[in-house]
Amino acid sequence: MIELHDVTKLYPASSRPALDHVTATVDDGEFVFLIGPSGSGKSTLLRLLLREDRPTGGVIEVGGLDVAKLPRRKVPKLRQRIGCVFQDFRLLANRSVAGNVAFALEVLGKKPADIRRDVPELLALVGLEGKAERMPHELSGGEQQRVAIARASVNRPPLLLADEPTGNLDPETSRGIMQLLERINRGGTTVVMATHDDTIVDAMRRRVIELHDGTVARDEARAVYGAGR
Ligand code: ADP
Ligand code: ADP
C-alpha cells in the first residue's frame, strides 16, 4: 500500500530535515500507529503521502502510484484512494450530517440517486442512523468524528490516514472511534494513524512506527507506546 524509500524532506530555510532518509513499507490491510514527539515528522509524512508537499529526496509509492512524480492532473486520482480524518473533524459547519457525507459523494461526481442510496448506508456504518438532519454543532465530538469517518469512507478508499483522530475526545468516546477504525480496517482498508494517545496504542497492540527527529527510531509489530514496557 505504502512504500517509502529513503524519503527526505528538507523545508526551505530550515537547517535540519523534517524527514531524514525514512524507509518503510506498509502492506495492504495493515493497521499502523505513527508515533513520536512533536516535531518528529509525523504530519510531514502524512502530507507527503497526500501529495500536499513533495519530498526533497527518495521515493514514495501509494497503491502503486509514484507520489512525488505524479503529474498534477493525476493528484485527484491519488486523493480519491485516501480517506482522511483529523483531530478537529473539519466538517462543513453549514451542512447537515447527511449533507457533509453527500458533499463528498458529489465531489466524486456521483449521481443524485446514488448519493441518496449511499448516504444512509454510510451513516449506518458509523452508527449515526438517526442523526442525518442534525447540524455538526448539534453533535458531540465523538459524533462529529463519526461523520468525518463516514465522509472519509465514501468510495471505500484502500487507505485511511488519521491524524490524531482521538486528540479532542475523552477516553470512552475514543474507544468507540477506535472500534470503528478497527472495523473499517477489518473490511480491508489500510489504516495509518498518527497519535499521542498511549492508552489506545497500548490497548490495540498494533504495529508502531516511531519517528524521532525525522528518522525511524522504532518499527515494531504488536507494540506498545513506550518501548521496553
Ligand atoms: P509532527 O507532526 O511529528 O509534530 P512535523 O512534521 O509537523 O512533526 O514537523 C517536523 C519538523 O518540520 C519540525 O521541526 C517542524 O518545525 C518542521 N516543519 C513542519 N512544517 C514545516 C513547514 N511548513 N516549514 C518549515 N518547517 C516545517
Ligand atoms: P445541507 O443543507 O446540509 O447541504 P441537504 O439537506 O441540502 O443538506 O442535502 C444535501 C444532499 O444530502 C442531498 O442532495 C441528498 O443527496 C443528501 N441527503 C440529505 N439528507 C439526506 C438523508 N436523510 N438521507 C440521505 N441523503 C440525504
Brief summary of the model shown:
With 229 residues, this protein is α/β, with parallel strands linked by helices. It has helices at 42-49, 75-80, 97-107, 112-125, 141-152, 171-186, 198-204, and strands at residues 2-9, 19-26, 31-35, 57-62, 65-66, 82-86, 159-163, 190-194, 207-212, 215-220.
Main attributes of the structure:
single chain, 229 residues, alpha/beta, Rossmann fold, six-stranded mixed sheet, four-stranded antiparallel sheet, 7 helices, 10 strands, globular, binds adenosine-5'-diphosphate
Could you characterize what this model shows?
This protein has one domain: 3-Layer(aba) Sandwich (Rossmann fold). Helices cover 32% and strands 24% of the residues. The chain contains seven helices and ten strands. The protein has a six-stranded mixed beta sheet, with helices on both faces. A four-stranded antiparallel beta sheet has the order 2-1-4-5, covered by helices on one side. Helix 3 packs across helix 4 (112-125), helix 3 packs parallel to helix 5 (141-152) and helix 5 (141-152) runs parallel beside helix 6. The model has no long low-confidence stretch (mean pLDDT 96). Bound molecules: adenosine-5'-diphosphate (2 copies). One adenosine-5'-diphosphate binds next to helix 3 and helix 4. Residues 95-96, 98-99, 102, 112, 115-116, 119-120, 132 line the site of one adenosine-5'-diphosphate (ADP).
